[in-house]
Structure formats: structure tokens, C-alpha cells
Amino acid sequence: MAKVLLINPSYVTTYSGHKASIASPLFPVLGLSAIAATAMQHGHQVSVLDLCYLPYDPQTIRQHILNEKPDIVGITATTPGMNQLRDISVLIKDIAPEIRVVGGGPHPASMPRETLLESMLDVVFIGEADYSFAEYCDGIPLKDIKGIFYRDGDQIVSTGTRPPIANLDDLPMPAWELFDAEVYRKHASRIYVRKAPQASVEFSRGCVFKCDYCASKMTMALGYRKKSPQRCAEEIRKLYSLGFRELLVVDDIFTSDQEWAAKVCDAIIEANTGMIWTCSNGIRVESSNVDLFRKMKKAGCYRVAFGFESGNDEILKAFGKGGKASVAQGREAVKQAREANIDTQGSFMLGLTADTEATMIDTINYARELPLDMIRFANTIGFPGTEMFNRYHAKGMVASYDWDDYSFYSSKSLFTHAELTEEVMDKYMALAYTKTIWLNPAFVLRRLWRGIKTGDIFWDAYYAIKFAFLPAVSNRSASNYYARDRWPVYDYQGQALSRTDYQIARKPVADNQSIVNNEYIASSKYIANNKSLADNKSNADTVY
Length: 544
Ligand code: B12
Ligand code: SF4
Hints:
- By secondary structure, the chain is of the alpha/beta class.
- The protein has a domain at 3-166 and 539-543: Rossmann fold, CATH 3.40.50.
- The chain has helices spanning 30-41, 58-68, 82-95, 106-110, 112-117, 130-138, 181-186, 217-220, 229-241, 258-271, 290-298, 313-318, 327-339, 357-369, 387-394, 422-438, 441-454, 457-469, and strands spanning 3-8, 45-50, 72-76, 100-104, 123-125, 148-152, 155-158, 198-201, 204-205, 225-226, 246-249, 276-283, 301-309, 343-350, 374-379, 501-506, 527-532.
- The strands form four sheets. It has a seven-stranded mixed beta sheet with strand order 2-1-3-4-5-6-7, sandwiched between helices. A six-stranded parallel beta sheet has the order 8-11-12-13-14-15. Strands 9-10 form a two-stranded antiparallel sheet.
- Bound molecules: cobalamin and iron/sulfur cluster.
């Protein structure tokens, strides 16, 4: 039996010093709950150190390692957490070189070789690691574990990708019990969470679309796999029994297979826990349906977020979201959600690949015109693992490989945009909030009326004051690192990236009944293979 410690880095730098930080999201990290569950199923002892709500402090980690004396430490990281991952890897090897330190999650999975070369990790896991991590804890020889990159002397060895998990119901229930619900209650943002504490839950994995700024396929594969409605309800019961009262559904496209989504809602209604939930991760506008929204409302859903991104159809098409996800469809989606009495949140992006000042004005006007309850603007950033990042990297247009600079709300200019300078971007980010919130009486009245109806008015007032004084973007400062001068360094300039492909969860041709528009998979039987990002020209892969 191995003693395993899993670490989630701090989010504090990402979610402080800018307007969007008033709705900072804090809940147990699902990737770690998932790999903890399979490792525990294999008989290993697992604990979690979740630093997400604390400023980064190497001393806290050192003390924890000395107390726990783990055999294996696993660190998860999105790109803004990558420098913390590097720092922690050096810290742990200083404390005890025999502790095995491994990494996974969106950033390491997108750049496995580079992550090893920039850190002191022993192994990097790519894609879904539910089973590969458990095998690693079991002590299976590294060459026999599919889906990892590891060091062999001076060499870095890849064992190839692993087929996506065919039946998600086979997975054990995520080990949320390793997190203390009270922590997430205390630190919840009351404008983002109505009934703290909140947890995240996934009813499905993957997406069939190919937006060029999205990295989800590096971990969750291209294709769509769903849990059974009964399993989804069972997860909600478990979370309720652990003290969680609100859920964030993190699925990429929860409402796209509407027949299945309705069945999930039926199962939730039958479970009758009183759990409330949101689709704050975003659903696609063309997947809106008023009957489904009514059912979601009955099942406890009180907010849906729409990824509108742009108010200009040509821009939507240019980055791979256009076609069915049009500006007109966005208006219809908001109307339908409001008819079902569900709050609406709109996410917009400025500085998209083809954006100009004129098209950003279209986006701001669109956000102002839509009857939304929450509005969020983000700078378009090509995160590692996205087609956008690969393209910028190949052309030598990435201005910074310092992962501390990467955030939707950072004022740093990370890429050379064809049309837009850093100053212009800052100007439009500030203008966006002024025009859509402060100088938008319809929004202010809507929010007031909503606050009176829900009793949230005092929280609204509190957050409105904070919001007023914060800048639209922040000039992120690096964390208080332990050994920045000793981090291994990798020179990205002119080097090909180690991973530009992803796995595909593909339906067998013989069993091709589709549910919606011939695009989504109904079956749970898949075969897997890989596809180069360079091949991806179309918006949706119609084999699904
Ligand atoms: C929920 C969510 C969040 C949550 C929680 C983040 C987290 N650490 O999980 C919050 C709201 C905090 C968040 C914030 C951000 N997010 Co986010 N988020 C998601 C979302 C929607 C779901 C993640 C999830 O729970 N998936 C389900 C679990 C089961 O999958 P998983 O986390 O990938 O874990 C599996 C594997 O990756 C692996 N694994 C994961 N960790 C580890 C660790 C070890 C040791 C091992 C062995 C394996 C392993 O095993 C797991 C089981 O198979 C994804 C989209 C997506 N489809 O994944 C985006 C996503 C991860 N986010 C993304 C981004 C860009 C961000 C932000 C940078 C945005 C910003 N504000 O600038 C911030 C970063 C905050 C920070 N400082 O870290 C990108 C990642 C791009 C990148 N290169 O990092 C994604 C992929 C969105 C996208 N469509 O591109 N996010
Ligand atoms: S719809 Fe686009 S942004 Fe959303 S998960 Fe799919 S590819 Fe990513």
C-alpha cells in the first residue's frame, strides 16, 4: 500500500485584484477526487492538501510533507498553477529525494515533456488518469502504464496515449470525503454561490466541438461520454450526505444531448435531496430548449451560463464556434432560460483571433442588450493545449512562457495580436464593464429586482461596492516561491511541442444511433484513437 498526498495549488493570484474576482470559485477539485477514488479502490491511503483558497506558502507544504511522510505526491495544475507545481517539486525533492512526485491535469497533460523538463517531477500523466494513477501507485513498471511520460536516465519516455474510459459508470464515486466541506462554506463567494458549500460534479466527459481557444480535449478527449442518470443521482446523494448544498456541473456540453439531460434531471428530481445547482461552466447557445430548462429548474438548477464569446457572427465562425452558435441563437437562448425562470450568466471574450476594435464594440453592445443577470468578460488567451497556443507558438508569436502571466484577467500581453495592442485591450476590458453594467440601467434594475426577490440584495450591494473599486484586469504578481532560482528551465523558442494531439472517444460505426443532429453519441461503446490538431478544420466532428 502506498501513502499518497495530492496537492491542489493556490488560486489566489488568479482570483484577486480584478472585477471578476468577486465571483471567485472555490470547491473541491474534481480531478483529484477522481484519481483519489481509484487509488483508494486499489487499497492505497490517500489524503489531499487543497491550497486553492490560501496564498501560496511553501512553509505550509513543507510542514504537511513532514507530518504526512507520503511515498507519492501528486500535483494537479492548470497553466497558472504550473509555477507552483515546479516550486513544490523542488521543495519535496529537497525534503526527501525518495518521495516520488508526479503531475497531471490540464497543463502537464498538454505539455508533458516540457513539464518534466521544467520541474523535478518523476512522471507526468496525460489525459484521464483515473486508472493510470492507480496503476502507478500499485507499482506497475512505468513502461507498462499507458498514458504517461517519465524519466529514464537522461531520456524522457512516453508510453503512448490510453483509450478514453468507455463506461464512466465503472469509475468509483469521486472521493469528495477527503475535502472538508466547511472550508468551502467559509470561503464561498455569495454572489456566485447561493447555498454554500459548493462542490463540482461531472455528469459527462468531453466535447465534440473544436473552439480554437479550448484545451478540454487534452484531458477529456474529443467525443462525448455520459454517466447513467442513476449514477448522476447517486453522486448527488453522496455529496448531500457530505454536507454540500450546491453543485457546479462542470460538463462541457451538458445540454447538448437533450434527451439524456432530461433523464438526468428526472433522476435528480426523484432523488429529492433539495440540492441546488448551476451550469456555470457554460452551455452552448444552440443547445437551449425551454422544456429542458423547465425540467432543469424543477431539478434544482438556478443558473445557466452561456459562452456567447462574441457579438459578431463572423468572429464566431473564425474561431470555430459559428454556424449554429450564432448571435441570434444567443438571444433566443437567454429568452428561453428566462422563460424557465433560470438566472442567466453571459461569458464574453475580447481579443479573439479575428477581433478588431469594431467587432469588440459589437460584443460589448451585444452583452449590454441581452437581459443577463451576470456578465463576465475575459481576455482571450491561448492556453497551452489549445489550437490557438500551438499556432502562436509555431509562428514564434508567444510573448511569455512564464506561466504566472497566464490568466483571463491578466493585463499582460501574451501574444502578438494582428490588430490589437495591450493598451487597446485594457481600454476595451474597462469599457466593457462600464457600458454593460454601470451605464446600463436595465442591468442595474434587473439585478435590484432579482436581489429583492431572492433576498440577496445586501450581498449584491456588498459585492457591487467591491466591484466598483476593482480594475477590469490585474497586473498579476508572482507568488512567494521557495526556489525560483533552482527551477529547471526549458527554452521553448524554436522547439516543437511534445503534445499536439488528443484522444478520441469514437463510436463504433455499426452502432450509430445519434440523439441530436447526428452529432452526439448515444452509446457507451467506444473505440479510441488519436488525431492531430493540425487536421481539425471543421467546427464539429460529424462522425459523432
Ligand atoms: C472546473 C474547472 C475549473 C475550476 C477548477 C479547476 C481545476 N483545477 O480543476 C476553476 C473554476 C477554479 C477553474 C479555473 C481556471 N480554469 Co478551468 N476548468 C474547469 C473545467 C470546466 C472542468 C475541470 C474538471 O473538474 N474536470 C473533470 C475532472 C475529472 O477532470 P480533470 O480535472 O482534467 O482531471 C483528470 C485528468 O486531468 C487527470 N488529473 C488531473 N489532475 C491530476 C493530478 C495528478 C497528480 C494526476 C496523476 C492526474 C491528474 O486525472 C483526472 C481524472 O481523469 C475545465 C474544462 C474541462 N473540460 O476539463 C476547465 C479548464 C481546466 N480550465 C481552464 C482554464 C483556462 C482555467 C483558468 C486558467 C481560467 C482563468 N481564470 O484564467 C483558471 C485557473 C485557476 C487556477 N489558478 O488554477 C482550461 C485549462 C487550460 C490550461 N492549459 O490550463 C480548461 C481545460 C478549460 C478549457 N475549455 O480550455 N477551472
Ligand atoms: S464547445 Fe468549444 S469551448 Fe466548449 S468545451 Fe467544446 S470546444 Fe471547448
